[in-house]
């Protein structure tokens, strides 16, 4: 059964530090927590994260700059090792971080699909169908035969999303890149993600846009200084996030301690 789970997970980045102590920023909302241990400096980017994601979940991550969304996605993906806690998963994980890993900006959309298909060991017989599906979904038209480097950010988001969702993944992890797409793309993406989770897939999307998360996700967690400050429906999480930005919601939400999403 497809699942991905973090238990009491934490990530500390070791950093070089020579600057003086400037104290906390306004409201102390930005970034993780800087601390010293044995004369070395670290940024605690994730702390005590409990997430148990099961089949059919579409989870959004929301939070200020530096609150830990990208670190959490990379931890879920297994790209970053944990400093504490455990990660277990079953299923094939694919990521869409800023762009598709392995893409060559000098090659056309079509050439990239052919290359990436080989990289992902796609059955060559499937490539024509995948190409047709991507052309249809992205609506790139003649741009499909131009180098991907000539695409706008939103066009690249369309291309990357269409390619990743055409592969047979169980868990999709998507960062801010999705926010570059327009409304039409988000509504097409929503339908595709619905189908993906209906057949048992898991999706985690990080975005600053509550509109994007409302369109793509059914649940959300609010990250704050590397911790889960709130978890619940997307509208409730958005309201909590907005209130916390204006000082109306402080401290971790008690429900955040429940490993459910
Ligand atoms: N390579 C790194 N080395 C040291 N610290 C890092 C590194 N990457 C991230 N951090 C720190 O980890 C914390 C979390 O960063 P992360 O990129 O996960 O946040 P984010 O929520 O994705 O931010 P944003 O919304 O700005 O993209 C921040 O304090 C950041 O300074």
Count the beta strands: 10
Using the CA coordinates, give the radius of gyration: 19 Å
- CA-CA gap between termini: 17 Å
Mean pLDDT: 87
Spans of at least 5 consecutive residues whose pLDDT stays below 50 are 256-261
Bound molecules: adenosine-5'-triphosphate
**Which CATH first-tier class of the largest domain would you pick?**
Alpha Beta
Spatial sequence of strands, sheet with the most strands: 6-7-8-4-9-10
Tally of helical segments: 7
**Main beta sheet strand tally, sense and closure:** 6 strands, mixed
- Tell me the helix content: 25-40%
What is the chain-wise order of helices and strands? Answer: EEEEHEEHHHEHEHEEH
The tally of structural domains comes to 2
Structural class category:
alpha/beta
**What gross morphology would you assign?**
globular
Key attributes of the depicted protein:
binds adenosine-5'-triphosphate, P-loop_NTPase, six-stranded mixed beta sheet, 2 domains, 7 helices, alpha/beta, 28% strand, Rossmann fold, ATP binding, disordered C terminus, 261 residues
What does this protein look like?
There is one protein chain. The protein is of the alpha/beta class. It folds into two domains: 3-92 and 169-257, Rossmann fold, CATH 3.40.50; 104-161, no CATH class. The protein is built from seven helices and ten strands. The protein has helices at residues 69-77, 109-119, 127-138, 153-166, 183-198, 210-216, 234-245, and strands spanning 3-15, 33-37, 40-54, 58-63, 84-90, 93-96, 171-174, 202-206, 219-224, 227-233. Strands 6-7-8-4-9-10 form a six-stranded mixed beta sheet, sandwiched between helices. Helix 5 links the parallel strand 7 and strand 8 (202-206). Helix 3 runs antiparallel to helix 4 (153-166). The longest helix has 16 residues, at 183-198. It is globular and about 55 Å long. The two termini are 17 Å apart. The model is unreliable at 256-261 (pLDDT under 50). Bound molecules: adenosine-5'-triphosphate. Residues 13, 15, 31-32, 43, 45, 63, 65-71 line the site of adenosine-5'-triphosphate. Belongs to the ABC transporter superfamily. Pfam families: ABC_tran. InterPro entries: AAA+_ATPase (IPR003593), ABC_transporter-like_ATP-bd (IPR003439), ABC_transpr_TagH-like (IPR015860), Bact_Polysacc_Export_ATP-bd (IPR050683), P-loop_NTPase (IPR027417).
